[in-house]
Protein: Cullin family profile domain-containing protein
Amino acid sequence: MALTKNTINILNFKGIPYLHSNYPEKQWAILEPEIIAIMNGQKTSKSLEDIYRMVQNLHTFNNLEAYSLNNLRIIIETDLFQKLYVLLDDEDDFLIKINILWKNFQEQMKTIKNIFILFEKSPKSPQHNSVHNISTTLFKNTIVLNGTIKKRILIHLLNYIEMERNGTQIDTKLMRSITNMLTDLQIYTDVFHSEFEKVSDEFYRNEGSKLIKIYSVSEYLKYVSFRLNEEEERGNNYVNGNTKFAMVDIIQKRLISEHVIEILDAGFEKLIEDENYNDLSLLYSLIRQIFDGYNHLSNYFVDYVMKIGNTIMNLPDTQTIESLLKFKNKLNTIIKTCFMKNRVIYEDMRKCFLKFINAQRKKPAQLLAKYVDQKLRAKTINVDELEASLCDIMTIFRLIQGKDIFEAFYKKDLAKRLLLGKSTSQDAESSMVSKLRYECGSTFTSKIEGMFNDINISWEINAAFKQHLNKSPEKDDIPDLSINVLTNSFWPNYPSFNVNLPKEFVDYQNLFQKFYSINHSGKKLLWQPVLGYCILKADFENGKKELQVSLFQTLILLLFNASAELCYTEIKELTNLDEVELNRTLISLTCGKSRVLLKKPKGLEINGTDVFTLNKQFSDRLYRIRINQIQLKETKEEERETEKSVLIDRQFQIDAAIVRIMKCQKSISHTNLISELFNRLVIPVTPCDLKKRIELLIEREYMERSKDNPTNYNYIA
Structure:
């Protein structure tokens, strides 16, 4: 059976209509005046829909895309040339006119693009032949890149910006519209940016050179800040981001980088001294943005800190620590408030303080200990202020390398506060010890804590002893005395004085010694009178008084119960005080504010021929008077003794460290031994100090030089 094909019959099909050869020309003859009308903002004779249909008909037939777009290009170009000639003839309000031309052109091209939308979507039309590309390219090449127009645009833009820089308000919306036009046409850089950058560079170079000579630093910094803000605002208003960043770079270069030394020379130190924190903040914010700005700022900061620091370290001793603390707090405030808590600058400050504080190896530690003593004795400071002061003190303590020197003098002063009852607050004393323990460890504070423990135990012993005395039939004849029992290894060493004590004192000592030996067999008491003090009741002609005096002052004053007048030699024999201590004690009684003794002849010096009498006319508004205890002030000799004991202790520490290392290593090179010692020792030492101790240990046969290599050491078991 044969297969047959199916067919479909279409009725009334007339086929593809015939396109007359001159059809495109006829269509364009109709279309062209309509397009020209659109470009001139005039009303078209046909509706936009009819115009669109005409373009659609052209698009429907093959090979007319190029023809149509080319004709459109000719129409646009011709129209633009006509408008160019008008623009060239009149320069008044030039930017306004070209802006209107551009805005109108964009609107006209939007309408034309919609009419030719089929050509935009056609795969046969290359992208660069789109209506948008054709129109913008023609506007760019015909109008904007015309030599005269291009020059006028640049000149007017630069003139407007110059006016704005000089304080005149300008039309920023117009400026934004023009720069947007240049950006849309992709000629912003060529037409405007490059030349604007050159002009601005010259402007700020001249401004910087001129103003740095006539402005103060504060005025100059404010000017730079104003210009930066102005360029920032200009960038937000009408120039693009690249131009804004370029302007910032130019300002940083011409106004800051090229004059940074002049700025810092003239103003850095002055701004700090005047505590001008606002301008310091501005200075920091400006300089940190330039290349190498941190280094410049750091160098000037370090020079300033070292200069003031060295000056402070040469102040009188009584002013040094207080001035150091104020200076450090001031710098901390500046770094926090003005330098954005910059950690590098904090470290610079720390290194400076380390350097100038420890340039004087012993003095700072001693002065700090004295300052602590002053604060812990102060009666007028409240608890919160005292705690804050102790915290500040610790910031200096951390920087001091001779912490063992501090410990020695701190212990001497602490001993006086504890034994003489001069502490402002036991809580403050405990707080200070806690801070030292936290900073240096329990080993550092073990003896200090032992001193507090001795005082507490002494209270208990005295209470028990007084209960014991209350059972004695002679209790009414026994003076009211308290004795502190101290562990010798915890407390500072004091010179021994074999003074002649009153019989009542000696009897009391004997009673206490018997009582103590009962409960503490095997322990020996060594009596130390140097820090003893008494309350003496005195009956003067002007009234009764109580005198708070040292034990040595007491011994001298009690002599006048039996004699109205005593010469220097008699007092010395009766008290058995050495000449130095006797002289200091007599000065405190005869030459101080409270002169309970009179001296013949008058004068501020004590001589062996002087004669002393009781000042029966003595008077004071207070009932209880403290006689200045001059003998408690440390002499240079005592200071040297304290330092000497520290140095001896350091030698023991160095020797022990060397022996421990040698015992562990058995054999080690000199270089490695020195390096290991620096790592282990927390006391300040020099290579010379270490070398001396090594040589001494070799002499004492703890170690020896290697026979094969003299730079190596061997441990001798």
